[in-house]
Design brief:
Elements (H helix, E strand, L loop, with lengths): L12 H12 L5 E8 L8 E2 L3 H9 L5 H10 L4 H8 L6 E4 L5 E2 L6 E6 H6 L1 H25 L4 E3 L8 H13 L4 E2 L2 H7 L9 H5 L4 H11 L5 E3 L5 H17 L6 E4 L4 H14 L6 E4 L5 H9 L6 E4 L1 H4 L9 E8 L2 E2 L14 E7 L5 E8 L8 E2 L2 E5 L2 E2 L6 H13 L16 E3 L1 H7 L1
Parallel strand pairs: 6-7, 6-11, 8-9, 9-10, 10-11, 15-19
Antiparallel strand pairs: 1-5, 1-12, 2-4, 3-5, 3-17, 12-13, 14-15, 14-16, 17-18
Helix pairs in contact: 3-4, 6-7, 6-13, 7-8, 10-11, 11-12
Length: 439
């Protein structure tokens, strides 16, 4: 189920002015653009995400009557160019790393080959879509690694930059190994498990915390998780024990309690002892409030007795790295390979492929960026043809299949590249043929 179609006006004005100039000068030749993320030192790896949305948009690429009327009112574009746009469709080829693939800085994650006007207009769509979803999927993967097999739930919706971002965060985090989301609409759209408990306001509407807990348990006897820190966490844990005893008499079970403030490591250990001493070792302890990979790692290193985490704001906005330097650069036009030579922004000319070599144990050993038509006996290609002549070549994978691909990929990445506080550069080389082409 798609959220909605954004259409070809999701672009920067200069994409359209360049397209109009191409049109006026008869430049309809084939062009190839390469998308990659420049190294920033903040991420040792990335998780490819957003491709399915790109393919959906490109299959439906067309300027509506209202789009053309809007552009006419701007009085910027020649009338013959606007007539051209009325019939324009995307007819090109997309080669990309499938979603869930682990990749590294400076490696092309996607290449577009199409008539130059088509390829130019979609630049903004590519960068916005791939850039944001990859950013979030990568942050989520780091959180998953920190949690060491403990379930994570996306709690970010109320703090993401807009509802559309919140929905894509839910999808990207689930693909990267999260167990679910609090986002009900994302749950509906993508069939992601939804999860949630109560807020402090619910507790405060009752005369006492115990009454609030009892009301909630009576309403949701098969799915009761109690927020215990509204007034005093230790007292809240003892009230939770009273509820657990009442539920047990009715043949029901308290699922868990949630901590949302204070010293998470110390409080969780105290709450765990209270629950265990009362005979409820099966009641889970959930924690939320400001968690990301760094805070998860910190509290677990202190021996926190936390079984699962709600991960919100810092993950949903990728707080420590809120953007990536993702670019979409022309690498071939017509029959001519081209490259940019600007200081600090040099690009690699030519249609490319990324080849991955693995160690005997299956772990990733080295990547090589080469020419598209190259082949290596000891390495396999990562970029796959996803679209030709403007049409998908395969049906869309399910989100569960994408999650499975990510988990398989992530297991093969050595732990030193998953570090949160160390910059460890995975070996990426350039093939001799690609090097020679640059000259």
């Amino acid at each position: 189920m798609r959220l909605y179609t954004v259409g070809p006006l999701l672009t920067d004005l200069y994409e359209l002015t360049m397209a109009a100039a191409y049109h006026a000068n008869g430049r309809f030749n084939e062009a190839t653009f390469s998308t990659f993320i420049r190294s920033s030192g903040k991420r040792n790896f990335y998780v490819a995400a957003g491709l399915e949305d790109i393919l959906d948009e490109l299959e439906d690429f067309r300027f509506s009557k209202r789009d053309i009327e809007y552009l006419e009112r701007k009085e910027v574009f020649p009338k013959d160019f606007l007539r051209y746009l009325k019939a324009l469709r995307f007819t090109g080829t997309v080669r990309a790393m499938p979603e869930g693939t682990i990749f590294f800085p400076d490696e092309p994650v996607l290449e577009i080959t199409a008539p130059v006007i088509e390829a130019q207009i979609i630049e903004t769509l590519i960068l916005n879509t791939i850039g944001f979803q990859t950013l979030i999927a990568t942050k989520a993967a780091r959180c998953v690694h920190a949690a060491a097999d403990r379930p994570l739930i996306d709690f970010s919706l109320r703090r993401t930059q807009g509802h559309y971002a919140g929905i894509k965060v839910a999808r990207s985090t689930y693909m990267a190994g999260f167990a679910g989301t609090s986002n009900v609409l994302a749950g509906k759209i993508y069939d992601i498990p939804i999860s949630g408990t109560m807020a402090h306001s619910f507790v405060m509407t009752f005369e006492s915390e115990f009454e609030a807990f009892k009301a909630y348990a009576d309403t949701f006897p098969d799915n009761t998780v109690l927020l215990i820190d509204t007034y005093d966490t230790i007292f809240g844990a003892r009230n939770a024990v009273k509820i657990a005893r009442e539920m047990k008499k009715k043949g029901k079970q308290l699922i868990g309690v949630r901590l949302d403030s204070g010293d998470m490591a110390a409080l969780s250990k105290t709450v765990r002892k209270i629950l265990d001493d009362a005979g409820f070792p099966g009641v889970k302890i959930y924690a939320s409030s400001g968690f990301d990979e760094n805070k998860i790692s910190e509290v677990l290193s202190k021996g926190a007795a936390i079984d699962a985490f709600g991960v919100g704001t810092k993950m949903g906005v990728s707080a420590d790295a809120p953007y990536s330097d993702i670019v979409y650069k022309l690498v071939r036009f017509n029959d001519r390979n081209v490259r940019k030579l600007s200081p600090g922004k040099t690009t690699l000319a030519g249609k490319k492929q990324v080849f991955r070599k693995t160690a005997p144990d299956g772990r990733y050993a080295k990547d090589t960026i080469g020419l598209r038509d190259e082949a290596f006996d000891d390495a396999y290609p990562l970029l796959e043809k996803a679209m030709a002549n403007g049409r998908r070549l395969q049906s869309s994978p399910t989100l569960e299949q994408l999650q499975g691909r990510f988990k398989k990929n992530f297991l093969l990445l050595d732990d030193r590249y998953k570090s949160f506080d160390e910059t460890n550069t995975y070996p990426v080389t350039i093939s001799p043929r690609l090097k020679a082409l640059q000259k």
